[in-house]
Amino acid sequence: MAKKEKITVNSILSYKQAKKKIAMLTAYDYLMASILDASEIDIILVGDSLGNVMMGYKNTLPVTMMEMIIHTQAVARGTNRALLVADMPFGSFQNNKEEALSCAIDLIKAGAEAVKIEGAQYIDIIKKIIKAGIPVMGHLGFTPQSVNILGYKYQGKTKQEEIKLLKEAKALEKAGCFAVIIELVPDAVAKKIAKGLLIPVIGIGAGPNCDGQVLVCYDMLGMYPCSPGFVKKYADLDGIIRKAVKKYIEEIYSAPVAQ
Ligand code: KIV
Fold this sequence. Notes:
Blueprint: H1 9-17, E1 22-26, H2 30-38, E2 43-46, H3 50-53, H4 65-78, E3 83-87, H5 97-109, E4 114-118, H6 123-131, E5 136-141, H7 147-150, H8 159-175, E6 179-183, H9 187-196, E7 201-204, E8 212-215, H10 217-220, H11 237-253
The site of 3-methyl-2-oxobutanoic acid (KIV) has 11 residues, from strand 6.
């Protein structure tokens, strides 16, 4: 069988020129990463959403570098073909450029091939990380690490917000980001941003016109009970697992008791 082509940052950039859409999902462990990779997903993200779906935190703010490193190592063991991106967690890049670079390096040493940073206010930090040879993916719109300021709501709804978003996206492109995620942004605004950038714009809750889409794997597989309303469920794994576990319990309880 022919060896599957490895997806790199350059492949992702070339997809935009070729008008080829990008499919991206999160994974947090070896087994899920192996399944997504074998299914030929383009990008696997070790998202700090692991705080919600793996750790049971109420948001992504408590996620630590140590948690990101352990999960990135596990995902890396299951990933061969996909591009592997890891999130820089809250507190890992805000303090200063040196600490940010050191945390980005730790994620690369754990197996990531690129890092993702939320917000456009850290352009200098992003530039320093890229200068060190680490590709950076941006993240705009609703940025979960700023939930206490933004609230959980759509961004870019007013003309002023739309202009700001487009400006920020262009600034990330100019800084050298190889792609930008836009989250919870109206379809029409997402379309304008995708049209206005040379790098791919990957949407989540941002309509179908982006250059690609990303979802949390447990949301789209129907396993996470608190998934956002815009998420399309491609399976009901919660139902399937509960049914299987119930059947298992029933079989144990109904087995003969040794006399
Ligand atoms: O943390 C995450 O999983 C993310 C994606 C949902 C974009 O940032």
